[in-house]
């Protein structure tokens, strides 16, 4: 229990200390007009309050990642707590903050556009393909996952196909309508349900004195599987996730002032880390050891763990509410996944989105592809997604490092976690069954050599960009309205 409580405390302290440090490094411009006002179109660019933006951001980035990932990661034992805390404070929250703030400085641009500007035009096409693939996979799986959970929750009384159709209809509306019409109105309620359910489980663990394993040299890692690099691809959204880089620009277009960025971007990643800690602790402590956890995962997957934990901690009624809170997570990431895909494609093709027809003809093919993908077994594709997800995180961190380098600021806050994850990304794909299947020792050598080469290319490009005085932000000098 001490390890668990200390980890939660560290996450909170990290927000007030390292979060402020990152904010100072970036350099907030309090009076600078944000895209919510400069580019206001009543659809994607709409000023919204900090509490509303924060809850939307939390739900956008969460998905089932901070629950299902930590549940699977619990098999690694208390070492999972270390990655959640360190990864969240020094990598994930930095990633989310820089992505969001750099987007604000560049009219709410998405990652492909930012990669094109700061890493070269070729990267625009690479990242665009990565991002759209990621979002299609996320959106499709986040149709099936909540539909399956609801099907079980309703004892099969409503057909699975009907539930999938209902969720698709909601996604279509949320993708096409202005951001403040559905997402801005229902997300605060969804967010409250998510936070209450997670807090309920967390408080239940403390009150019942659940036997949460303590971090020690003898209990560091009870599982037999190698920690590196697999744990970084198991626990993603609760520590570091490239999917977040596709979501933060949605809120960068609705943020009223730059000063609100730390609460919205850095703060909500910390909140997601706390949720991840709660579910990792619950999975470690409530199934009579790691053998029991393996059994329930084999029988029913992470969803079965969620159901068992919720009922054990909160009773039948409270457990049902907690499961509903988990159902909300994929739905509120699925809708914004499709919305982000529409916005990224529109930005790539330079198509204004104020007209409904312009939004419609981009969205329809996306949903058509997604319907087809729901018929495919995603086990293999999801492994590629996991790798692509962290590869996208590396790209986003390097964008942040480039921005700070050109600005002559402390770029190490982004480059160090970016370089670390780059080693893991290269090593994983060289060794994995879905990759090149090289022996692990060869994969590690390739990971370090590949990272060294790419970092060398980064510094070469960064020096040229600084010498050429690459503009870091869009000019809004002729716009005076600030909230």
Automatic annotation (TrEMBL):
GO terms for cellular component: plasma membrane. Keywords: Cell membrane, Membrane, Transmembrane, Transmembrane helix. It is found in: Cell membrane. It is a multi-pass membrane protein. GO terms for biological process: cellular response to starvation. Its main location: membrane. The keyword Transmembrane helix applies. InterPro entries: CstA, CstA_N. Signal peptide: none annotated. The keyword Secreted does not apply. The chain crosses the membrane at residues 75-98, 126-152, 158-177, 189-212, 224-243, 264-287, 312-332, 360-378, 384-404, 411-430, 442-462. Residues 3-144, 163-286, 290-426 form the CstA N-terminal domain. Belongs to the peptide transporter carbon starvation (CstA) (TC 2.A.114) family. This is Carbon starvation protein CstA. It comes from Mesobacillus campisalis.
């Amino acid at each position: 229990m001490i390890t668990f409580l200390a980890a939660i405390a560290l996450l909170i302290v990290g927000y007030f200390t390292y979060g402020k440090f990152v904010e100072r490094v970036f350099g907030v411009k309090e009076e600078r007009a944000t895209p919510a006002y400069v580019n206001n179109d009543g659809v994607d660019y709409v000023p919204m309050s900090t509490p509303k933006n924060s809850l939307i951001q939390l739900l956008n980035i969460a998905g089932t990642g901070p629950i299902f990932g930590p549940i699977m990661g619990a098999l690694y034992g208390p070492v999972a707590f270390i990655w959640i805390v360190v990864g969240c404070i020094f990598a994930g929250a930095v990633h989310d903050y820089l992505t969001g703030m750099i987007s604000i400085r560049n009219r709410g641009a998405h990652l492909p556009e930012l990669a094109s500007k700061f890493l070269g035009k070729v990267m625009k096409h690479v990242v665009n393909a990565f991002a759209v693939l990621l979002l299609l996979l996320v959106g499709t799986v986040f149709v099936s996952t909540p539909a399956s959970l609801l099907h079980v929750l309703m004892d099969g009384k409503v057909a699975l196909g009907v539930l999938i159709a209902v969720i698709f209809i909601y996604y279509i509306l949320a993708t096409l309508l202005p951001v403040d019409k559905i997402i801005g109105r229902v997300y605060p309620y969804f967010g409250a349900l998510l936070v209450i359910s997670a807090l309920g489980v967390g408080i239940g663990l403390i009150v019942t004195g659940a036997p949460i394993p303590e971090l020690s040299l003898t209990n560091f890692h009870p599982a037999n599987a190698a920690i590196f690099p697999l744990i970084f691809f198991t626990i993603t959204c609760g520590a570091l996730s490239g999917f977040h880089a596709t979501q933060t620009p949605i809120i960068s277009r609705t943020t009223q002032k730059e000063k609100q960025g730390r609460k919205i971007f850095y703060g909500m990643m910390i909140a997601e880390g706390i949720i991840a800690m709660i579910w990792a602790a619950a999975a470690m402590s409530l199934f009579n050891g790691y053998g029991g956890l393996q059994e329930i995962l084999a029988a029913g997957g992470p969803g079965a763990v969620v159901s068992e934990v919720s009922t054990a901690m909160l009773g039948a009624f409270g457990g049902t509410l907690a499961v509903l809170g988990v159902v909300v997570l994929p739905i509120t990431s699925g809708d914004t996944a499709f919305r982000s895909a529409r916005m990224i494609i529109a930005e790539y093709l330079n198509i204004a989105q104020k007209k409904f027809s312009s939004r419609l003809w981009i969205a329809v093919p996306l949903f058509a592809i997604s319907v087809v993908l729901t018929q495919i077994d995603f086990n293999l594709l999801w492994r590629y997604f996991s790798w692509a997800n962290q590869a996208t995180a590396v790209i986003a961190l390097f964008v942040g490092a480039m921005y700070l380098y050109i600005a002559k600021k402390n770029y190490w806050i982004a480059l160090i976690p970016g370089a670390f994850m780059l080693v893991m990304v290269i090593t994983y794909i060289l060794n994995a069954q879905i990759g090149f299947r090289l022996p692990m020792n060869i994969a590690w050598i390739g990971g370090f050599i590949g990272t060294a080469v790419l970092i060398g290319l980064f510094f070469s490009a960064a020096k040229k960009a600084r010498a050429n005085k690459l503009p870091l932000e869009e000019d809004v000098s002729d716009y005076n309205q600030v909230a």
